[in-house]
Every structure is written in C-alpha cells, then in structure tokens.
Specification:
The chain has 156 residues and is mainly alpha-helical. The chain has eight helices and no strands. It is 81% helix and 0% strand.
Length: 156
C-alpha cells in the first residue's frame, strides 16, 4: 500500500517536472515487488501522471497564464497560423486529436508535455483528455512493469 501511494506521488511530481522519470522508478520496483503490487503501482502512476499533466492542459487553454505563451499568442505569425490549422483539424475530426494524444501519452512521441499544452490550445474536452491519458498511461506502465517481471520469472 505504501509503495502504491509513493508511486502516485512520484508520478504526479514527474508529470509536473520533466526531469523526474517515473519509468525508472517503476523499473526499480520490478526487482522488489510481486505482480499484484506492480499492477497497483502502474495504475497509481497513471493516475498521478494524468493529474500532473492537467496544469499543462490549462496553460494551453489560457486559464493558467505564462509570459512565454502570452508573447506567442500576441505575436501573429507561424505559431498563430499553426494553432488555428490544428484547431480546425481537431474540431473537424475529434478522433484525430484524441489519437495524437493517445500516441503521445503511450509512446511519448511527440513529447507528451507539449501535446498536453496543445490539447488545451485546441480546447479538447477535459474529460476526454483525462480518460485518454489515464488509459494510455495505464497501458504504458503495465507493459513497463509486467514485461520485465514476466521475463525475470520465465528466464532462469
């Protein structure tokens, strides 16, 4: 139980601060814990990462203001054109935006922090953002902890 709560805290911090790596933390737990605890830690980490990315979403939405984003929004140019094109594309095809979010959340390509801000800029539904993030992060972390755990049990 303590390891699950600690995984949640570390994952939330890692969601907010890109220098903290939850994947390394979870891989360290693989050598010490059984599969049940690893599943609980993976799910708690997914929840923590989801909560940690919500502020980035709101930065993109404009609810939380940053000087850099304000300067970008005030300066017409490539940034404004790109955002308006992406917003139109996301409004025309909501699956496209959710798909990009899912890909980024699962594979971190493109960087998930950037896509979290972009989701806010594109005014993606916050519930959709949270659900897609939680599901794909859960899958990522479950694979991350169970694959090595399974390999360590199978390989003598």
């Amino acid at each position: 139980m303590v390891e699950t709560a600690l995984a949640f805290v570390v994952a939330t911090a890692a969601g907010l601060v890109p220098l903290i790596n939850i994947e390394v933390y979870l891989l360290g737990a693989v050598a010490l814990l059984d599969d049940g605890a690893l599943v609980a830690m993976a799910l708690a980490s997914a929840l923590g990462q989801t909560l940690g990315k919500i502020p980035y979403y709101y930065v993109g939405r404009g609810t939380i203001s940053t000087p850099w984003l304000r300067r970008r929004a005030a300066t017409p140019g490539k940034w404004t054109e790109r955002v308006s094109r992406w917003r139109a594309r996301a409004e025309e095809r909501p699956v496209w935006g959710a798909g990009l979010l899912a890909l980024s959340s699962f594979a971190s390509v493109p960087p998930f922090m950037v896509v979290s801000v972009l989701a806010g800029v594109l005014r993606m539904n916050i519930v959709l953002f949270c659900v897609v993030t939680f599901v794909t992060r859960s899958a990522r972390f479950l694979i991350l902890v169970l694959a090595p755990a399974w390999a360590m049990g199978v390989i003598p």
